[in-house]
Amino acid sequence: MEPQLQLKRIAAAITFVVAASTTVYAQSSGKLMGTITNSKTGETITGVTIRVIGTSRGGSSDVSGKYSIPALPAGKYTVEYAYIGYATKQITEVEIKADDMTNLDIVLDNSEGKVLDQVVVTGSFKKESIGALYAQQKNSALISDGISSEQIRRSPDKNTSEALRRVSGATIQDNKFVVVRGLGDRYNVSMMDGSVLPSTEANRRAFSFDIVPSNLIDKITISKTATPDLPADFAGGAVQISTKDIPDKNFVSFGIGYGFNSVSTFKDFLQTKKNIQNYLGFDDGSSQLAKNFPSRTDVNAGLSQKWQRLALKSLPNDYVIQNKSALPSQNYQFSLGRIKQYKDDSRFGALFSVNYRNSQNILPNIERNWFTYDYRDQQYKFSTNLGALANFGYSFGKNKITWKNLYNRTYDNTYTERYGTDASSSSINKFYAFDIMQKSLFKSTLEGEHVLSDKNDKLKWTASWSNIGNNQPNQTKINYQKHEDYINDSSVPYLANLTTVGKANSRLFADLSENIFSGEVSYSTPLNFLNVPSSLKAGGGAQYRKRNFDARFVGFEFNSLAVSGDEQTRILQMTPDKIFSSDLINQNIYKFGEVKGDGDIYEAKSLSTFGYAMLDQKFADKFRVVYGLRVENYNVQIDAYRILSGQIEKSVDDTKLDFLPSVNMTYSLTPKTNLRASYYRTLARPEFRELAPFAFYDFENMAMINGNEKLKRSSINNVDFRFEFYPKAGEILSVSAFYKGFTDAIEPFRYDVNSTPDISYFNAPKADLYGLELEARKNLGFIQDKEFLKNTIAYLNVSLVHSKVKNPTDLEYIDKTRPMVGQSPYVINAGLQHTALDNRLNVNLLYNRIGKRITQASGMRFASTWEAPRNVLDFQVGYKVMKGKGELKLNAGDILNNAINVYYDNKQLNLPNETSFKYKPGSNYSLSFNYTF
Q1: Smallest Cα–Cα separation from 51: which of 26, 69, 27?
Q2: Helix and strand element counts for the chain (H, E)
Q3: E strand spans, 371-398
Q4: Nearest Cα residue to 261 out of 362, 172, 166
Q5: Which of 138, 468, 632, 856 is the most buried (most CB within 10 A)?
Q6: What is the pLDDT of residues 29-84, one digit of tens each?
Q7: How far apart are CA 618 and CA 110, in angstroms?
């Protein structure tokens, strides 16, 4: 095909998408579509010829093994699939319904030693659909679990985090973060469309999965073992999300939903003034530092009294608290899909999606009772989330090019009131915190896939750019106190602690920007190696990350020499909205103050280069081995500001070369059972924030958070065994055993050498983890041959895990050995799914419980903090209306509303347990409506 013609088609297709023109099939026609794979390896097959017998209609499979035959008149057909070297297959009773899509996935056989291209195999539509599903389940090269777009379509899930709950071994925390096999976010890697997702959180390695709409997902897979073509830095699981590029058909859909929280909605909600930009996910700029604000150099040189006044008056000062009623959460979604199919089976498609969420949540009566503190917090959080997705795909001949884009922005504005006593200062405190956090993520990925010859050898390449922003303007903390002897004496006022800029009096302005560039290319080809049909895959690539961080701690310092004692008392008892007024600044009541620390400015960068080779071999149709080697070279550098020199200095410069072998073996005992065994070596690298010598006061944890420049990467040896049995399509019974040996495991802990406990990170020299995992998914029709039971599926996943960590010997830690931080001794996921009324009604009941786990390891004086188990029960029901084009969904989340309880386990200290924090988040109920044109 001429390049000019290709360009004309692309231009025409883009015009067609922008104009949102719609191809309308005749009311009496439908579409046949599906994916064609190898029955033995599960790999997709390109160039298969499809004929609808008795008609002139047909087509061929593209580079992804997908095919599409539009505008088939309604009726029943026999469809033929033919490819050289494979047995031709004819499928009967393929029913095409008017104005609908019929999905038929096909598996073709090319078993060695048979002249299969002269054989014609005949089967029915129903039998082939079930066989294709079997093949997908059994042919995975590694131990993995997943969920397809068809399963997601039949569920009431509206975003990826909800869909992930249905994947074996996965648990969702805080409605957005994934836990695999009881291991938290540090030991999991998240990928989308072939490239690693950046973290959406500034201080942890985690991706917020609730930002991706479920209707744009093609499939989700969690790989629990490694192959050389997967990133090396995981031990729990690699969560791989594939978004759709070329839609199955033209569509326009919208969704609207509202939610109710049992402890928040319609309750008194305290907040600062909000504007339209806040509702759209943006700060209006009034909370940022002024452009002419004194620089660090200016402050070091000394500010005149006039300049101090100007600097203080330029700081944001809108602390008027409004008492509103918390509104129900709001959720709006719009999606558009367009496809243009040409006569030679080339296709151009585009997908667009915009989603918006806003919520106003209250966390009432947060209990904090430990060390010298006895506090109660009331927290009010205003949150807005704005997301967009734009995917484009062009499939032509044996080639496919896609361009996928994801954008997300969150705006959180939190107001906290704290009241209680601090025995260390014999004081009663009224503490107020105003905190704004803005986060943004943009990811753009360009992918290409090309079949180079008739032997189905493939070249794939990926280029990706991501940008992450975290902006925290004007986090303000102010504490009022009086002596505890006057707790019941209202004549003694609370006075603001404004003596110096510090934990109880400061303004934090922090800004983080990070860019990630990555690319990868791979080549795969079938071959005969040692007289065994094999597939060779080799590839390489690189990822470059660069982060810039800048934080300033500034504030008002009370000038006690400027006024008399009585006037001081009058001023210091003013409320936050009045105490920083311009009138007081003009009277020189305040001086400008700034606290400087190591790492307030830092630049971090890393370069990871990798190469790999792997061989996939199938012996006698029963035994399969996938083995190979991945080599990664990783360099990380951090340049940070130092107080003593007043200069940017090199803090971290570390390079590691790792050789990472893996082997995955599968033995098919019967057509329905597999035995699997695997060994692989992986890594866990410290995040930039964990390495950077930056410290800040976390008022929620009441501790300084410090990085550790001496952190090393963890090395992990993994061994897995699994028995899996597939009674019927979509059903499974599996038992897994696994072991993970960690060297230099990275763990957060309480650094309590000083008078107040801080939080930092260290390397535990050795850690061992082993466990069992049971998964069962079964249709209940075996109990009794009744329609209700045949339409009900029961699901159970149980993980039992034991770990043991040896603490470092540099300090006298309370715990010499303990479980790993974030690891639960057990995880239970169970559910029931029922469909009725010809799949129009879908009901789900989900239960989750995680065993108690350490959140921070002990120091020398403070015991480890543990998160207590809690029972989580969710209920979902979806009902399709308007001929299946509309759907009503009712969701009830965290129905039991068990308390979230993190506590100090003081058994070894022979003391009662203490409460780090404890509260009830409330139950969530939502009602939504979605409609697709």
Answers
A1: 69
A2: 12, 49
A3: 373-396
A4: 362
A5: 856
A6: 888 988 888 877 778 888 899 999 988 888 888 888 888 888 889 888 999 999 88
A7: 12
C-alpha 17/C-alpha 36 separation (Å) is 28
0.90 exceeded by pTM? no
Nearest to 681 by CA among 663, 666, 665: 663
Three-class secondary structure of residue 143 per DSSP: coil
149 is written with which tokens?
A: 């777009």
Nearest to 780 by CA among 800, 799, 796: 796
Query: For residue 147, what are its two tokens?
Result: 């969920």
Residue 542 bridge partners (DSSP): 519, 609
Q: What number of residues does the chain have?
A: 933
Secondary structure of residue 854 in the 3-state scheme: strand
Buried/exposed code over 53-87 (b: 16+ C-beta within 10 A; e: otherwise): eeeebebbbbbbbbbbbbebeeeebebbbbbeebb
Residue 522 and residue 229 in contact, taking contact as beta carbons nearer than 8 Å? yes
Q: Which two tokens stand for residue 779?
A: 């249709």
**Sheet containing 58-60: which strands, arranged edge to edge?**
58-60, 49-52, 75-82, 88-96, 120-124
Q: Are 600 and 694 in contact (CB under 8 A)?
A: yes
- Name the strand (E) or helix (H) holding 348: strand 347-370
Place of tokens 């058994």: 907
Give the helix/strand (H/E) hosting 639.
Answer: strand 623-642
- Distance, in Å, from the CA atom of 521 to the CA atom of 538, rounded to the nearest integer, reads 9
The number of beta carbons lying within 10 Å of the beta carbon of residue 126 is 10
- Structure confidence by residue, pLDDT tens digits, 577-613: 999 999 999 999 999 999 999 999 999 999 999 999 9
| Other residues' Cβ atoms within 10 Å of the Cβ of residue 275 | 11
* pLDDT tens profile 122-171: 766 655 555 565 566 667 766 677 776 666 665 556 667 777 766 766 77
In whole angstroms, give the CA distance from residue 574 to residue 579: 5
Q: Which parts of 210-347 fold into alpha helices (H)?
A: 276-279, 296-301, 305-314
Residue found under tokens 């203080």: 312
d(CA 71, CA 78): 16
> Which residues make beta-bridge pairs with 767?
742, 805
